[in-house]
């Protein structure tokens, strides 16, 4: 039997009731892969977060970690390869092709599927971005393998299976999902759910170029334009160090100025709970939570937000959660670190002022320097 | 022009409660709704039909009670509704679901004309995976356009379609061809109410019901639990944090004092942050 060399055979009682012997054709699937998402030449930070997770899984399994890079020939792909190594990859599989410049499903799904069939990874991780979800669904269907979406925890079981944990029923419960008899085991993870790993200055590792061709004429979809969000300046909420958010407790759209004011004063970004988007008080890309953005700031201030599970799953990774709410029994106090039971509308201006005063001396010092 | 819209009946997850002891979902009394994103897909489909002519068929896979959702879709103005229902589908994951739905869509094509567009919502609110749309596209070998905010134009003569697709940090304008599969984003279109005629027609309409065989599915092992490569091993409640929030006392204190105290508390928890904030602050101003 082709058991893995790097691991002792699983203990006899290990979920024998569930796991059949892995079908013969999958027994030589090995190594952990992370798809490196390139956005107009830049690596999406979620790829680094995934390399951090992938490193941990690969170490547990005693296998190698590979970064997968699909892109046009040139500096951006080589830079991505160097970054993959800096964040822990042992090797990089590289497909360089001009028609992989802008993301389109057909060539990317085709190239990634081809790579998997040739090099046989046992685990394949992608970011749960619009790109990653679009791509992962196609690849998993073509390979007829399991795909677990939006995981919040990844682990390796005692018999080497990937245990992928994700929220279900709108975040009220968590479930752990296995792909037992197919390979690769695929999962997507949202940006900011996993911690950003330390970047090291590891020297260049092994780059394996994969030969793949497709003809532009065979690709139906063409990219004819791109409108960047940069104009609205809100591309960065997920990666902001400080986030101030408002909820229905603020009563009206005008009071959102109090949130923006505080955010601006402390150099942070601002967001909101879902009802505010539904009321049209804020654009959808400012929504924080299960169906909005996941954030992982050093400081999160929630004003007039009750803390429903769907909101909670988006903010739990914050280092410090501060809640301002009139209701001492609001669920947000179950997961906030610091709470103030008070009216946010009158409190926010005072808080902004308190920050201004506290941070002012440092500011003056900088000006003198 | 023939359009198929896949919808799903889901529990209104805002009203779901978890049993505190058994950690199971308490479904009793939880109302079901059409997955909200699917309504945007339906609305976009109806607009395309109203503009270019043709028919809209709504399709759902689910238990017999999912018929309600289809009837609702008819009141919005869909022309035909098909319920794919069979005990063999129970326990389907996204791969098995996309198989069953794609077979049914192929059968719809044979019976009522091949679809030019298949619409789905961007994701469901109970599963949240966003995988079924791409799965159907792959199995039917359709071009897939996901996270579409808007169908900008369709040229039936050249079979060309232009859409705006949300992507990280912006919106891509994509030009593609029919037939294709589109998954729709939220908020793209206000959902119509449906006319009185539609409501009357919906009440009278027969909803077509297909079991696996009737939908043309030969290999039943590709459906349900057996056709699902993923296995749910464990379901559990998130662990509550054992430490309660530190409460800043507000009784008989001036609001400014409370604010100062909160700031002090924040920096006591996060000493490094004070220095960072002082510097980012001067940059952002
Ligand atoms: C499928 C699905 C997905 C969802 N996704 C998300 C999501 O991504 N993000 C999200 O946020 N929600 C999401 N929700 C909605 C979520 O369930 C809650 O309805 C929502 O988070 C509540 O928003 P809120 O806290 O602003 O409003 P409310 O629940 O109405 O809470 C308002 C709070 O403000 C307090 N308050 C009132 N007046 C004041 C005052 N003057 N000063 C201070 N506090 C005051 C109240 O005590 C209360 O706690 C989703 C729901 C569903 C069904």
TrEMBL record, chain A:
<dbReference type="Pfam" id="PF01012">
    <property type="entry name" value="ETF"/>
</dbReference>
<comment type="function">
    <text>May play a role in a redox process involved in nitrogen fixation.</text>
</comment>
<dbReference type="InterPro" id="IPR014731">
    <property type="entry name" value="ETF_asu_C"/>
</dbReference>
<dbReference type="InterPro" id="IPR029035">
    <property type="entry name" value="DHS-like_NAD/FAD-binding_dom"/>
</dbReference>
<comment type="subunit">
    <text>FixA and FixB form a heterodimer.</text>
</comment>
<keyword id="KW-0274">FAD</keyword>
<dbReference type="InterPro" id="IPR014730">
    <property type="entry name" value="ETF_a/b_N"/>
</dbReference>
<feature type="binding site">
    <location>
        <position position="325"/>
    </location>
    <ligand>
        <name>FAD</name>
    </ligand>
</feature>
<dbReference type="GO" id="GO:0033539">
    <property type="term" value="P:fatty acid beta-oxidation using acyl-CoA dehydrogenase"/>
</dbReference>
<feature type="domain" description="Electron transfer flavoprotein alpha/beta-subunit N-terminal">
    <location>
        <begin position="32"/>
        <end position="223"/>
    </location>
</feature>
<dbReference type="InterPro" id="IPR001308">
    <property type="entry name" value="ETF_a/FixB"/>
</dbReference>
<keyword id="KW-0249">Electron transport</keyword>
<dbReference type="InterPro" id="IPR014729">
    <property type="entry name" value="Rossmann-like_a/b/a_fold"/>
</dbReference>
<dbReference type="GO" id="GO:0050660">
    <property type="term" value="F:flavin adenine dinucleotide binding"/>
</dbReference>
<dbReference type="InterPro" id="IPR033947">
    <property type="entry name" value="ETF_alpha_N"/>
</dbReference>
<dbReference type="Pfam" id="PF00766">
    <property type="entry name" value="ETF_alpha"/>
</dbReference>
<feature type="binding site">
    <location>
        <begin position="304"/>
        <end position="311"/>
    </location>
    <ligand>
        <name>FAD</name>
    </ligand>
</feature>
<keyword id="KW-0285">Flavoprotein</keyword>
<dbReference type="GO" id="GO:0009055">
    <property type="term" value="F:electron transfer activity"/>
</dbReference>
<comment type="similarity">
    <text>Belongs to the ETF alpha-subunit/FixB family.</text>
</comment>
<dbReference type="InterPro" id="IPR018206">
    <property type="entry name" value="ETF_asu_C_CS"/>
</dbReference>
<feature type="region of interest" description="Disordered">
    <location>
        <begin position="1"/>
        <end position="20"/>
    </location>
</feature>
UniProtKB/TrEMBL annotation, chain B:
<keyword id="KW-0813">Transport</keyword>
<protein>
    <recommendedName>
        <fullName>Protein FixA</fullName>
    </recommendedName>
</protein>
<dbReference type="InterPro" id="IPR014729">
    <property type="entry name" value="Rossmann-like_a/b/a_fold"/>
</dbReference>
<feature type="domain" description="Electron transfer flavoprotein alpha/beta-subunit N-terminal">
    <location>
        <begin position="22"/>
        <end position="219"/>
    </location>
</feature>
<dbReference type="InterPro" id="IPR012255">
    <property type="entry name" value="ETF_b"/>
</dbReference>
<keyword id="KW-0535">Nitrogen fixation</keyword>
<dbReference type="InterPro" id="IPR033948">
    <property type="entry name" value="ETF_beta_N"/>
</dbReference>
<keyword id="KW-0249">Electron transport</keyword>
<dbReference type="GO" id="GO:0009055">
    <property type="term" value="F:electron transfer activity"/>
</dbReference>
<comment type="similarity">
    <text>Belongs to the ETF beta-subunit/FixA family.</text>
</comment>
<dbReference type="Pfam" id="PF01012">
    <property type="entry name" value="ETF"/>
</dbReference>
<dbReference type="InterPro" id="IPR014730">
    <property type="entry name" value="ETF_a/b_N"/>
</dbReference>
<dbReference type="InterPro" id="IPR000049">
    <property type="entry name" value="ET-Flavoprotein_bsu_CS"/>
</dbReference>
<comment type="subunit">
    <text>FixA and FixB form a heterodimer.</text>
</comment>
<comment type="function">
    <text>May play a role in a redox process involved in nitrogen fixation.</text>
</comment>
């Amino acid at each position: 039997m082709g058991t893995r060399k790097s691991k002792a055979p699983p203990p006899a009682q290990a979920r024998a009731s569930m796991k059949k012997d892995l079908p013969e054709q999958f027994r030589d699937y090995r190594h952990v892969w992370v798809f490196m998402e390139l956005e107009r030449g830049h690596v999406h930070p979620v790829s680094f977060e995934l390399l951090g997770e992938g490193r941990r899984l690969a170490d547990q399994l005693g296998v190698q970690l590979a970064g997968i890079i699909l892109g046009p020939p040139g500096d951006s792909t080589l830079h991505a390869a160097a970054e993959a190594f800096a964040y822990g990859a042992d090797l990089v599989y590289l497909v360089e092709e001009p028609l992989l410049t802008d993301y389109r499903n057909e060539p990317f799904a085709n190239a990634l599927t081809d790579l998997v069939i040739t090099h046989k990874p046992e685990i394949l991780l992608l970011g749960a971005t619009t790109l990653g979800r679009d791509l992962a669904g196609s690849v998993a269907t073509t390979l007829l393998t399991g795909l677990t979406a939006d995981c919040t925890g990844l682990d390796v079981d005692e018999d080497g299976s990937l245990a992928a944990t994700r929220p279900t029923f709108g975040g009220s419960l968590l479930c752990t999902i296995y792909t037992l008899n197919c390979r690769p085991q695929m999962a997507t993870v949202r940006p900011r759910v996993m911690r950003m790993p330390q970047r090291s200055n590891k020297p260049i590792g092994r780059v394996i170029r994969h030969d793949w061709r497709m003809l532009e004429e065979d690709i139906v979809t063409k990219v004819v334009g791109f409108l960047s969000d940069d104009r609205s300046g809100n591309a960065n909420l997920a990666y902001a160090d400080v986030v101030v958010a408002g909820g229905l407790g603020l009563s009206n759209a005008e009071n959102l100025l109090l949130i923006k004011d505080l955010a601006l004063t402390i150099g942070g970004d601002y967001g909101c709970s879902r009802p505010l988007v539904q009321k049209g008080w804020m654009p959808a890309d400012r929504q924080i939570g299960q169906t909005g953005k996941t954030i992982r700031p050093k400081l999160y201030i929630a004003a007039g937000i009750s803390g429903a599970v769907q909101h909670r799953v988006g903010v739990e990774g914050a280092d410090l959660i501060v809640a301002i709410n009139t209701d001492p029994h609001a669920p947000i106090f179950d997961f906030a670190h610091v709470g103030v039971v008070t009216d946010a509308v009158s409190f926010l201006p005072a808080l902004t002022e308190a920050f201004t005063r506290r941070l002012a001396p440092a500011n003056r010092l900088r000006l003198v320097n | 022009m023939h359009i198929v819209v896949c919808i799903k009946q889901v529990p209104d997850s805002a009203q779901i409660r978890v049993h505190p002891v058994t950690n199971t979902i308490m479904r009793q009394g939880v109302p079901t709704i059409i997955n909200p994103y699917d309504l945007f897909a339906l609305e976009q489909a109806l607009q395309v039909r109203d503009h270019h002519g043709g028919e809209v068929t709504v399709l759902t896979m689910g238990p017999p009670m999912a018929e309600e959702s289809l009837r609702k879709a008819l009141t919005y103005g869909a022309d035909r509704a098909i319920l794919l229902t069979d005990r063999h589908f129970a326990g389907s994951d996204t791969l098995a679901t996309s198989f069953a739905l794609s077979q049914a869509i192929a059968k719809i094509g044979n019976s009522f004309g091949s679809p030019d567009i298949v619409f789905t919502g961007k994701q469901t609110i109970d599963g949240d995976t966003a995988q079924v749309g791409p799965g159907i596209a792959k199995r039917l070998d359709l071009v897939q356009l996901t996270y579409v905010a808007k169908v900008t134009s369709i040229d039936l003569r050249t079979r060309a379609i232009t859409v705006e697709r949300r992507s990280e940090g912006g919106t891509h304008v994509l030009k593609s061809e029919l037939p294709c599969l589109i998954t729709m984003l939220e908020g793209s279109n206000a959902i119509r109410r449906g006319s009185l005629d539609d409501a009357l027609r919906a009440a009278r309409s027969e909803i077509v019901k297909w079991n696996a065989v009737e939908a043309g599915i030969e290999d039943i092992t590709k459906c349900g639990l057996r056709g699902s490569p993923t296995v749910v091993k464990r379901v559990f409640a998130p662990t509550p944090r054992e430490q309660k929030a530190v409460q800043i006392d507000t009784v008989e204190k001036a609001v400014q004092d409370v604010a100062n105290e909160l700031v002090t508390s924040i920096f006591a928890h996060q000493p490094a942050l004070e220095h960072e904030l002082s510097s980012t602050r001067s940059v952002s101003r």
